[in-house]
Structures are given as C-alpha cells and as structure tokens.
Amino acid sequence: MSHNLVEELLQELSSHNPEVAWGQFLSDYSNLIYNVIRHFESDADNAADVFQFVCERLIENRAKRLRKFKGEGTASFATWLRAVVRNLCIDWHRKQSGRIRQFRSISRLSIFDQEVFRAVYENATPPDECVSLLAAQFPNTTLTRIEESRARIDQSLTVNQRWLLSKRATYASAGDVTSLDQSDGSTLALEDSQPDPETRAIDNEQRRNLQRALRQLKPDERLLIRLRFEEGLTLEKVADLLDLGNAQRADRLIKDILAQLAKLIAS
C-alpha cells in the first residue's frame, strides 16, 4: 500500500465511523499481524487470543497507536507495524504473568531514554525496527541516538538491576515479577549468594574489561551478544528477531564476536 493510501486509511480510522476503514485495514494487514504473532506463540488457541488483544490495542482510542506512524523515516508502514505488533505480543505475555515495574533509576531519565529501555532492554527490538518504532514519537531518532541513550541507561543500572533483567524470564515463569524495584535495586536480599570482597573486586575488574571491549563492537554485534547472553534468548529466537535466517548462522556470528571480544579483552 502506498504512503498516501496509508495516510488516508489512518485518517479514516480516526473518524467517528471507522468500521469500513478497519475492515480494509484487516484485509490488508491481518496476515502480517498473525504471522508476527505466530513467531511468538505456537499454540493456535493462544495465538487467537493474542490476535484479538493486538487488534483491540490497535483500534482503541480511534486507532491512536496506529496514527503515531508519520512516514517520515525510511521504514515502510509494514516494517513499522511489525515492530508495533511484536511489542504488543510481549505486552500480552506480560499480562499473563505480571508486568515488570520500571526501575526508579530509569524513570529519572528522559522520556526518550525510557522508551529506548523498553524497546531494547525489555522487548529486545532489533536496531532497525527500534529506529522506525521510536521515530513515530521522536522524529530525529537514529542508531547513534539510540546508542547514546543506551550508554546513559547502562550508567544508571546497578549490578542488581542487571542481574534482575537477565533473570526476568525465570521470574516470570515462577510468577514472581510483581516488583523488580527493591529500593532502586540496591538493597535486594541476595546475601546468601554474595561473594567475598576479593572475589567481588576481581568480578568488577573483569566486568569493566568486558564493558570496554563491548563498546568497541559494532552496534549490531553488541545487540546480538545482549540478546543471547543478557536476555537469554535461544539461538532460534535471536535469528528470528534479527532476520539472520537460521540458528546456525546466529551461532557462527556469536562465536566470531566472542573470539573478537577475547582478543579485545586480552589487548
């Protein structure tokens, strides 16, 4: 569908009688929406529930979410819509197990940084989709701005918060995700597993070396490592999110990046 036709359709969806326009929208994009959903939900019954949830969120408030698309960037409406649907799928899964509350340290950052945190750290949105998704609300969004935002976010996160982010999938499956913001993550009760001071010093030094090495990677390489080891996604899911084709290719790329990291840390 051309850009002009998309604009016309979105305007009609915001009218007082959007039924015809909504029917046209579903005719044009329901297959795209459902295909994205099936990547997240293999069970047909659950996929039907997610499809209903996504459609309800897209049409609510006179299609306010859809009307955020401005068409000012390079991404097409279909590419942008895939990113929106992917985030709604994640929202649906969180509603089933309880939503993670935002860290206080993140809530003190700018609105743009908070949206980057949600897209990158919570939803694992690929870089190109992250740009197109955020550009609807922040027209000047670029990969460079997102990387600068991630640097600010990384500085705001405590060690405990990073640990909690890496373990959130485990907490979600156990139903224990009502709050990850225990006094800004600084007083979470983990005494039983706390290492001794010497071990902590070694761990901190190794972490600093790793962070320095990570900063020397390309943005897409850093994202690949974050998805696999910080988010704990499977190779199949990483390959799917980053359009790598298959898990074998993702595995080869990760091994190459790890070898590169080892050289950077040793240098």
Got a strand count? 0
Major sheet attributes: none
Mean pLDDT: 75
**CATH C-level category of the largest domain:** Mainly Alpha
How would you spell out the order of helices and strands? Answer: HHHHHHHHHHHHH
Outline type? globular
Total number of helical segments?
13
- Oligomer class: single chain
Distance between the termini: 51 Å
Which fold does the CATH topology of the largest domain refer to?
Rna Polymerase Sigma Factor, Chain: A
Radius of gyration based on Cα positions: 20 Å
Structural class based on helices, strands and sheet pairing: mainly alpha
Helical content stands at: over 70%
Low-confidence stretches: 169-196
Number of domains: 3
User: What percentage of the residues does DSSP assign to strands (E)?
Assistant: under 5%
CATH architecture of the largest domain: Orthogonal Bundle
Structure commentary:
The protein has 267 residues and is mainly α. It has three domains: 1-97, Rna Polymerase Sigma Factor, Chain: A, CATH 1.10.1740; 100-192, no CATH class; 195-267, Arc Repressor Mutant, subunit A, CATH 1.10.10. 70% of the residues lie in helices and 0% in strands. It is built from 13 helices and no strands. The longest helix has 22 residues, at 19-40. It is globular, with a radius of gyration of 20 Å. It starts with a helix and ends with a helix.
